[in-house]
């Protein structure tokens, strides 16, 4: 018999979420997640995917995946340390190290579990972590899992970070102190102040950890935020995902050989969860080769991002202070933001609203993610719809 305690808990909490408009309704796609998607028979211009370079549907990646499936099958069959390491897993890790300009790299099944794995393999209850208050959920969970003392610093506030680094290191309470930041913050598109963070880390002897999920493939001509600032030899942990610009799925840490050796013996998802599938691995290798050898897709992404931003701004929208192609359109009021997104959908644009608690109250926004795969015509069409709804709702004069 089902548990009444569980039934009551679920009923109460689901109803509560629904009544507050916080229950996620999921719209399944009837098409690939490209620049145009199909939902419930309706074609929409897609401004909500992390497929920054359009590689999720690239023929070269599909072909590489097909070949790997023919050769190795669809599953790796075991965890990495039993016999789930295929030769292509090793090839992927070599390519990732080349891509990130580090000695070595280790692949995980997702960016999320990579953060859970990497932080807790190195930090423990005798340590402290200085974490930007806007860091991604997987970083927060990885920090919690480690048992280390979590000290949040104000978003990209270097005075606050310095003061907290000083206090933590001078207290003598902790064996190790780490500073963790996203490379690019996905809600606003701003870039972490890595040169200052490295300076503070050097002054106080901090371990440095950058999750570049949204910077890889985007900044540094594709190589990421750390390369963008020329700091490849100054960051201990370079985290990335294979699910955004790379277009597939998976996560990785790139760094010094000893660090990667340690993660291979101590990080739990590497030891206890089956490795990436052959198709994922081969497609990811192909994507990284494309990124190493050409900046064509990266250039197109920036062209599209700059175009969309310039046009939205000249229409009169508040697009915040993004430094990357991520383009928020800040509406403010939560209800209005959700209404705007709904109207966009009805008119043929898929662009999700992001409201409290994901972003601070009163800063509701539509987050637009232009990609290299969008044509100018698609962007122009979306802009026409934006202008019409902006006027209708009194957001534009
Ligand atoms: N880190 C950051 C900064 C992210 O934005 C995301 C994805 N939303 C992740 C990690 C998780 O990556 P994945 O989707 O590969 O699990």
Detailed description of the structure:
Belongs to the class-II pyridoxal-phosphate-dependent aminotransferase family. GO terms for molecular function: pyridoxal phosphate binding; transferase activity. Residues 43-383 form the Aminotransferase class I/classII large domain. Homodimer. Helices cover 44% and strands 15% of the residues. It is of the alpha/beta class and 397 residues long. It has two domains: 19-48 and 295-393, Aspartate Aminotransferase, domain 1 (Alpha-Beta Complex), CATH 3.90.1150.10; 59-293, Type I PLP-dependent aspartate aminotransferase-like (Major domain) (Aspartate Aminotransferase, domain 2, 3-Layer(aba) Sandwich), CATH 3.40.640. The strands form three sheets. It has a seven-stranded mixed beta sheet with strand order 3-9-8-7-6-4-5, sandwiched between helices. Helix 7 (194-204) links the parallel strand 6 and strand 7 (207-211). Helix 3 packs parallel to helix 11 (278-293), helix 4 runs parallel beside helix 5 and helix 13 crosses helix 14 (376-392). The structure holds 4'-deoxy-4'-aminopyridoxal-5'-phosphate. 4'-deoxy-4'-aminopyridoxal-5'-phosphate (PMP) binds next to helix 4.
